[in-house]
Specification:
Layout: H1 13-16, H2 36-42, H3 47-58, H4 60-63, H5 66-82, H6 87-105, H7 108-124, H8 129-145, H9 149-162, H10 169-185, H11 189-206, H12 212-225, H13 230-246, H14 250-266, H15 270-284, H16 290-306, H17 310-327, H18 332-349, H19 352-488, H20 492-524, H21 526-536, H22 541-551, H23 556-563, H24 567-580, H25 589-600
Length: 601
């Protein structure tokens, strides 16, 4: 099965090993237990138990009975996982099983099934893009391994649509690099170049320098495949060298130096090729990469053969063969590189027998390499899993501490706000209660003052009416004397003076006394008095006064005395007033006036 790690002697093989999984699990446990499977099946499931389960499954190929365990235990584990209520735990479990099937069991079909279940669980609890993005990245490369390139490309489009919504810089940088490597591997060189540029631009904007060298090297490979000019490709590789030097990435430098050497060799610039080969070998004096040394020596041998320097190749073959036979008998790539160089050398020197032997051995090793490549990928994934496990645990611990601190501050602020609002509410209620009590007292005082004022007005009015009635009685006696004087006197002058005196007495009562009584009535019953004036007519003064005094309880004779009218005249006034008030003969005038007074007040 071909996968993202199967690149043979590709220039990106040391870099591509880290491209499939970004932080596969935020692992919570440090040590796996021998009975992790039984614990998972019998005890409550947690993140730690899933960690232990994955660690145990990864050891199954070395523990024996792999086929029996796969047939008996895996179905039980999957059945147990399906019963979990927590979508988060299920997503975590299926992520672990994706790694187990891919890395330990080599079952791409089941790895594909597990990654789909993981994505389904993530969507169930609306996981953020920071969580979903890496899962879609894994799905993308697994589909490529299954030779389902079209589906993998569709997933890459989903991943690209998701990237703008990812707010964690390291995750976003990783996914952009994943797309760059994916398109380059699948031969979509234009999208690969675009994705590489996008990743490089983003890393520069965020100040991320890690693995920038691998991005520039991937861009160089894609650009070279698109027939870019040699100068532009060399320029990209020089950028890769600059970032590898900045990040002290000796492994990346060794790869780029070797690729620079091979590029100059293809350009027929042997001096430059020789220069970069020597820079490659210089790294070994400080950072000895044992396996890389074999590949670089064989590449250098092929370069020397292309320059016709066969005598210089034989010592290289002998040295590499000795090292491989002593230390690398089990390392397939080293044997394969040696066999390829030997077949080239013996073909160049015309040693047909040794050429045939080396060529057959190379073909055999290529066949074995196809079977062993997946094992190498799994080992690399396991190493990455272990290193990222600790990083994830540290991040989880820091995130938990930050969350606790944030929650504590939030609780303190909430309690303070609650106390402050409660205090304000208490103060507001006390203030409202005090204002309410003051309003009640003020209303009582106003009512008492109004009552006192009304009683005083009523008393004054009654006293004034009584005085007027008494005065009218005196005036009546005075008018009788005047009439007697008129009757007994024959003098026209005396009669004229007597008539003037009588008229003066009547006018004095109407202008002074009745005006004062009317004013006090208007003050005592202002709304009712205004209503009577509007309804009866403001010019009907005697009708208004007689009606108002009747409402106040005065007898008809008292009203007649006050107005200097007969009782019959007063009753006629009352009759006319009833008509103007639209009262029927059966209606009680006094009751009507009382109701109207209540209504108006």
């Amino acid at each position: 099965m071909e996968n993202v790690f199967r690149r043979g002697a590709s220039a990106l093989s040391p870099v591509a090993l880290c491209l499939l999984f970004l932080l596969p699990l935020g692992l919570h446990s440090q040590n796996s237990e021998s009975n992790a499977v039984s614990d998972f099946l019998e005890e409550p499931v947690s993140f730690s138990s899933i960690d232990g389960l994955l660690e145990e499954i990864l050891m199954w190929p070395q523990s024996g009975n792999l086929e029996r365990k796969t047939e008996t235990l895996l179905p039980k584990l999957l059945e147990r996982a399906q019963s979990l209520d927590s979508a988060g735990l299920r997503a975590y479990f299926y992520e672990a099983m994706t790694i187990a099937y891919y890395q330990a069991l080599g079952n791409l079909e089941q790895a594909h099934a597990m990654i789909l279940k993981e994505i389904e669980a993530l969507e169930e609890f609306s996981a953020p893009p920071n969580r979903q993005g890496p899962a879609y990245s894994r799905l993308m490369f697994i589909l490529v391994d299954l030779n389902q390139t079209e589906k993998a490309y569709a997933v890459s489009l989903q991943l690209r649509a998701m990237i703008p919504h990812i707010n964690q810089e390291t995750v976003r940088s990783f996914l952009l690099r994943q797309l760059c490597a994916f398109y380059q591997r699948t031969g979509n060189f234009d999208p690969a170049i675009k994705a590489c540029h996008e990743a490089i631009s983003y890393n520069k904007s965020e100040g991320i320098t890690a693995l920038m060298g691998s991005l520039y090297e991937t861009l160089a490979l894609a650009s070279s495949a698109k027939d870019a000019s040699p100068d532009s490709v060399l320029k990209l590789r020089r950028q890769a060298i600059r970032y590898d030097l900045l990040n002290v990435d000796s492994l990346g430098l060794r790869v780029v130096y070797r690729n620079m050497a091979l590029a100059f060799a293809r350009l027929d610039l042997p001096d430059s090729a020789e220069y970069y080969f020597q820079k490659t070998f210089a790294i070994y004096r400080h950072q000895p990469y044992f396996l890389g040394w074999v590949q670089d020596q064989t590449s250098y041998g092929s370069f020397l053969l292309s320059q016709g320097d066969a005598p210089a190749v034989k010592p290289i073959i002998d040295t590499v063969e000795k090292v491989v036979n002593q230390h690398l008998k089990e390392h397939l790539n080293s044997q394969l590189s040696l066999a390829d160089l030997q077949s080239q050398y013996y073909a160049y020197t015309g040693d047909y027998g040794r050429f045939l032997e080396a060529s057959m051995r190379a073909d055999s090793l290529h066949f074995i390499e196809q079977q062993e490549r997946e094992v190498e990928a799994r080992e690399e994934m396991m190493a990455r899993y272990e290193s990222e496990k600790k990083d994830a645990e540290n991040r989880l611990l820091k995130a938990t501490n930050r969350a606790r601190t944030r929650d504590l501050w939030f609780l303190v602020i909430l309690c303070f706000l609650f106390f402050f609002l409660t205090l304000l509410l208490i103060q507001r209620r006390a203030k409202d209660k005090k204002i309410h009590q003051q309003n009640i007292q003020l209303a009582q005082m106003e009512a008492e003052a109004a009552k006192t004022h009304a009683e005083r007005l009523k008393s004054d009015l009654e006293e004034r009416v009584r005085q007027v009635v008494v005065q009218q009685a005196h005036n009546a006696e005075l008018k009788e004397l005047i009439e007697e004087l008129q009757a007994t006197s024959d003098s026209l002058s005396v009669k004229k003076k007597a008539s003037q005196m009588k008229r003066h007495i009547n006018m004095r009562i109407e202008k002074d006394t009745l005006a004062e009584v009317e004013d006090k009535m208007a003050q005592l019953y202002p709304r009712l008095y205004s209503y009577l004036k509007e309804t009866i007519g403001s010019g009907k003064r005697n009708e208004i006064l007689s009606t108002a005094m009747y409402f106040m309880g005065y007898e008809t004779r008292d009203i007649a005395a006050l107005l200097q009218r007969t009782e019959k005249a007063v009753r006629n006034m009352r009759y006319r007033a009833r008509k103007k008030l639209n009262l029927a003969d059966t209606d009680d005038l006094l009751e009507f006036l009382r109701l109207k007074q209540q209504e108006l007040n």
